[in-house]
Design goal:
It is built from 14 helices and 17 strands. It is α/β, with parallel strands linked by helices and about 425 residues long. The site of one zinc ion has 8 residues, from loops.
């Protein structure tokens, strides 16, 4: 049984998140996107947890569904926390994703974590404790917890990030590293980039949306192949724990160049640079430090050449969210009425967003949305696209029909769409 899963989302109680993120809203978005198993997000937030408790009921062991809903969407209790601590003479700010098997576990973990920070302040609370202390507290409370570093490479909050991160998982989590079995590649890196580090071989590489608004749900996801009748919290966390089991079949990725920390750069000056071509540390415009991106960090820590595929590597596909595809192909705004109409037409005629992006045939797409959108999706699937890479918080600019290349001979010099706030 194929389970497409997005384990890292946020509720409206997290900073800079849409007020429309309710339990029912997440269920509806999951159905539209084709997500079968979704994280609840923000389990540490008392008000959100109360709302989850009121709206969800037990389904398979450790999983939940919306009360009385005939739909098949399953929820898994998930939350993200930020640990702030000093180590080796440096302030560290690391984000972690956690999964828990029950509401009782969530209450117990929250009780402990509330001693380290104000859980009411934000759906993704800031805790004054080290990464190792966090993991120890969680596992002392709940032996079946699952904890992993979120968006492992992002410069500010990634466990390997350039600004406050570490050079290895062991340095970050110390003796509690024994509990870490996975990492989130984040939007600005894909599994192939992570395969270049032998130190990552032992971890499952997973991908989630980290959405702050419902339309971003499932922009990255994981596909599990669970034996029929065996779906549970433990079969999902077990699949990530036992990397060789093959239950984690593949992941769905952003094009990493589209992520907002792929290259090095300085946002205020609009300056970006390919770290493989230059090792600049300072912005040539204002002389301030550049934000060192994900590609640079991976190059620094990699012990293998690009293109290396380790044994047991889990395959992946790179997709562009359907609204962005339509906007890009038709040169209209992502949130324009026209794009919204085409999006709805495709969903109502063909199926879920992920099904359209991954499986629908060209003729069916063209019949409903026209040849340009069909071509854009074909190009996306083949990787025959142009991208001006993102940097320092600026999203990359994607050109699915390679117009910039054709029109002025230079790759991707114009912004063809505006992306969302994440
Ligand atoms: Zn985060
Ligand atoms: Zn600058």
């Amino acid at each position: 049984m194929k389970i497409i899963s997005d384990l890292h989302v946020h509720s409206r109680f997290s900073m800079a998140c849409s007020s429309k993120i309710t339990v029912l809203g997440i269920e509806q978005a999951s159905v539209q996107k084709g997500i079968n198993l979704v994280g609840t997000g923000d389990l540490t937030h008392p008000e959100w947890l109360k709302e989850l408790k009121e709206n969800l009921e037990p389904a398979e062991p450790g999983l939940f569904k919306v009360k009385g809903s005939p739909g098949g969407t399953r929820f898994i209790l998930s939350g993200e926390v930020s640990t702030v601590f000093n180590k080796d003479g440096k302030q560290r700010r690391i984000h972690h994703l956690m999964l828990l098997p029950s509401f009782e576990a969530a209450y117990a973990v929250n009780e402990r974590l509330s001693k380290h920070g104000d859980l009411m302040s934000d759906g993704r609370p800031q805790l004054s404790m080290s990464a190792a202390e966090l993991v120890e507290e969680i596992f002392n409370s709940e032996a079946d917890a699952f904890v992993l570093p979120a968006h492992a490479w992002t410069p500010y909050f990634g466990v390997f990030g350039a600004l406050t991160g570490f050079d290895s998982m062991k340095e970050a989590y110390e003796d509690q590293e024994k509990h870490i079995h996975a990492l989130e590649s984040g939007l600005s890196s894909d599994p192939a980039m992570n395969w270049r580090l032998s130190m990552i071989d032992k971890y499952s590489i997973i991908s989630n949306s980290d959405m702050h608004s419902l339309d971003k749900l499932g922009r990255e996801a994981n596909i599990f192949d669970v034996e029929s009748g065996k779906l549970s919290y433990k079969s999902i966390t077990g699949a990530m724990k036992e990397k060789g089991s093959g239950v984690l079949k593949s992941t769905i990725e952003f094009y990493p160049e589209e992520g907002k920390y792929h290259y090095d750069g300085h946002r205020q000056c609009g300056f970006s640079v390919d770290p493989e071509k230059s090792q600049l540390k300072k912005c040539p415009v204002c002389a301030r430090s550049l934000v060192i991106g994900v590609l640079h960090r991976i190059n620094d820590l990699a012990d293998r050449p690009p293109g290396f595929v380790p044994k047991g590597a889990v395959p992946f596909v790179k997709l562009v969210p359907l609204r962005e595809v339509i906007a890009n192909a038709t040169r209209k705004g992502v949130y324009s009425v026209a794009v919204g109409r085409t999006y709805s037409d495709l969903i109502s005629s063909i199926g879920t967003e992920l099904d359209i992006l991954m499986n629908a045939n060209d003729e069916d797409i063209a019949a409903i949305a026209g040849p340009e959108i069909s071509q854009a999706i074909a190009n996306m699937r083949n990787g025959n696209i142009t991208i001006k890479p993102g940097y320092a918080g600026v999203f990359g600019e994607i050109d699915l029909l390679n117009r910039t290349k054709r029109e002025d001979g230079t790759a991707g010099q114009r912004s063809l769409f505006t992306s969302g706030n994440k």
